[in-house]
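Bench notes, afternoon.
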Amino acid sequence: MGKRKLLFRGTGTALVTPFKKDGSVDEVVLRELVERQIKARVEALVPVGSTGEGATLTEAEQSQVIEMVVDQARGRVPVIGGASSNATSRAVALAREVKRCGADAILTVAPFYNKPTQEGLYQHFSSIADAVEMPIVIYNVPGRTASNIEAGTTLRLAAEIPFIAGIKEASGNLSQIMEILHHRPPGFGVWSGDDNMTFPLAALGADGIISVVANEVPAEFSQMVRYALKGNFARAREMHFRLLDLMNANFVESNPIPVKAAMAMMGLMEESYRLPLTPLGEKSRVKLEKALKQLKLVR
């Protein structure tokens, strides 16, 4: 691999996976959602992540979803397919399958439950990179994994492994993220993993977001991100606060429960989940509906 190139700059949507009432993947709706995203000018699509309920998709379904997104996108935006496991050997196998499906890059989360050391995290991600030899976005989300990829580990991976293309940072630790931004090598992407942190992180030099709220408001949110990345902070700030209640409402219960409920209210898909996720509770539904009505997304 030659000089590292930035994978994308702007908004990558962490796509939901639509299910039919019988629980199967809804191909027709998935393709419609992909088309809606591209027409709204998002810069990347990220299927089969946590928002896409990748943990409860079978391996065959994971491949099916990624292949459909790649096929529908037709090269108009990069597709970054999810491939995560807390067993490195299985993460490697999943990553190889994402490559076979034709994705442009891989998103892989830090191993959950086993709580590896920083050396274990380094070896996990380097093993995936060695196996697939394609761009890899590592995903740091301590709230879900029970371990944190420290800035030193991220920077070591960035310096030593060219196929590590960047990091989706959802630690909420500004000091840690600033350390990465300050010392990262050229072309190494840093994307927010939290919608409500996108604007401040863009001001610090991050490259955008892998987003949940872009499922609901792809055009408006991606425009906010573009304003922020271009340094038009007055416009970006105005749009950030306009969308903030919805960003927060998306997390009144575990993601992707609220965003799928919202998209059902908007008439975009069925409200269907895979256990152990369950439908949105009534109190949370009231809060979510209020945020959607403020933006005139529902009546």
